[in-house]
Amino acid sequence: MKVSKWLAILLATGLLSACGKDTQPRQTAKEPVGKYGHAVTLQGSVSSNSGLIKAGKIEARSPSGELLAETTLENSARYQLEIPAGTVLPIILNFLPAEHGSGAEKMISVAVQPAISKYDINPLTTAIANQAKALGGYTLRNMTRAAEDRVHVPDANKTSTGFRGDSTTQYGGWH
User: Fold this and answer.
1) Which of 102, 85, 91 is nearest to 48 (CA)?
2) Measuring CA to CA, which residue among 108, 130, 127 is closest to residue 119?
3) Which of 58, 106, 117, 137 is at a distance of 20 to 30 A from 25, taking alpha carbons?
């Protein structure tokens, strides 16, 4: 009986001494970082709520602020930027208006996927980028979440097939 008593005391002491110690630190799943394996041309158009913007400057910058490429809009709302191979994503595309009195505002769009090369810049892309930054940064997850929050689609319309209506009546009912 004495042995089991000592065993219980040792076990309790061991459990109590472990209470104050942290176990392994929690690992947060890091999102994979995209990277351009070859030189790529990013392109798109610039617009505001009142229409196309045909004057201003577009800059491609890294999150640290490093200038990667730039171009100027001259009588065209379309832009193209040559991004060198090996560039790590995200890339922040800044639109800077030609004149402060032109009514155009600074806007941004963020490139987060290496498979996509068309990035329009407008008030919606700016709002999505700002919300993603507030969520923790320009990651694919944050950009997707911010975009979903900005697009107002009722939950009933978010089926995988895109059917808009009562799913029990789709194709004549459940199959």
Assistant:
1) 102
2) 108
3) 137
